[in-house]
Write a structure and sequence with these properties.
- By secondary structure, the chain is α/β, with parallel strands linked by helices.
- The protein has 2 domains: about 40 residues, no CATH class; about 250 residues, 2-enoyl-CoA Hydratase, Chain A, domain 1.
- It contains 15 helices and 8 strands.
- Strands 1, 2, 3, 4, 5, 6, 7 and 8 form an 8-stranded mixed beta sheet that branches.
- A hairpin with a 2-residue loop joins strand 2 and strand 3.
- It is globular and about 70 Å long.
Length: about 325
């Protein structure tokens, strides 16, 4: 598949196109090996320079990259014997939520994840990764199965948010998300959450309550999209760069704020450049996380999970005297 370059990656694209041209010339018998080697060294230096100084908005663009691996990519590369479960037993099946049971090495696990498309056709099929209420109710059904069979639950977050359409609201979008938050806070089994791409608002949080929160290096996680934030704060969607910085949505920011527990490094340029390498790294961390959580019984897991989320955020209490009230 041909690489898709973002705006800030154009200098890299130019160098890599030159390397491709020289490589093709080399096939005709010309000795261009030294030129190719020099360009490859320049490309490596340039990549390190660009990707080590990404702005929050550039990280957001990487998190949304159309070639970025999604839940189904990780399922096919990390797990075996995956059996997908469909439907919420009430209304319909929602392709925007992938759920099922699989094997992680010798460990049986339950999986729930958002799924986006990689082109127009697949994006329409998966509704651009924005679940309807039935998607979250399907997820809830699988959560309860994980608890019933005492197996680890692994969730993968990658959504701009829950679908805000009229039909979704009529079928109880807010209630479906709230029910999931309530259930996950009390679920008596291990829950490992991984933010693999874009984590947007309550649509992400609905499968985001866990004992261990992992986040890929170039993923983002926020209460609102930069575009939405810019529209509200500045009434100007062009202020997305400022909004992205204000939201503190990068993995580095969220680790500092203790919203997540661990950053999973990505290959240079993003997870989509070396999917096999990314899957291998993530698999290692998932296995490690399950092993670490196995030492706690279910009651301890629930208590620790409660304390973990209860301490998030800050508030200030202040006594207001009568003069200040007036």
């Amino acid at each position: 598949m041909e690489n898709i370059y973002l705006d800030f990656e154009r200098p890299i694209e130019e160098l890599e196109n030159k390397i491709t041209e020289l490589t093709n010339e080399g096939k005709t018998g010309l000795d261009v090996s030294n030129q190719i080697k020099k360009l490859e060294e320049q490309a490596k230096i340039l990549k390190n320079k660009i990707y080590s100084h990404l702005t929050p908005w550039q990280v957001t663009q990487l998190a949304r990259h159309p070639q970025r691996p999604g839940t189904t990519d990780y399922i096919s590369n990390i797990f075996t014997n995956f059996i997908e479960l469909h439907g919420d037993r009430s209304y319909a099946d929602d392709p925007a939520i992938i759920a099922g049971i699989a094997s992680l090495d010798e460990q049986t696990v339950f999986i729930i994840g958002h799924q986006k498309g990689k082109d127009t056709k697949s994006n329409l099929r998966y509704n651009f990764g924005m679940p309807h209420p039935e998607g979250y109710r399907k997820a809830l059904r699988v959560m309860k199965l994980a608890e019933k069979f005492k197996k680890p639950l692994l969730t993968f977050i990658d959504t701009p948010g829950a679908y805000p359409g009229i039909g979704a609201e009529e079928r109880g979008q807010g209630d479906a998300i709230a029910q999931n938050l309530f259930a996950m806070s009390q679920l008596k089994t291990q829950i490992i959450v991984t933010i693999i791409g874009e984590g947007g608002s309550g649509g992400a949080l609905a499968i985001g309550i866990g004992d261990k929160i992992l986040m890929l290096e170039n993923a983002v996680y926020s209460v609102i999209s930069p575009e939405g934030c810019a529209a509200i704060l500045w009434e100007d969607k062009k202020k997305v760069v400022e909004a992205a910085s204000t939201l503190r949505l990068t993995a580095k920011d969220l680790l500092e704020l203790e919203i997540i527990d661990q950053i999973i490094p990505e290959p240079l340029g993003g997870a989509h450049h070396h999917i096999d390498e990314m899957c291998l790294t993530l698999k290692k961390e998932l296995v490690k996380a399950i092993f670490e959580l196995q030492k706690y019984n279910s009651s301890t897991l629930v208590l620790k999970r409660y304390k973990k989320f209860r301490k998030m955020g800050q508030f200030i209490e202040k006594n207001i005297d009568k003069e200040e009230k007036i």
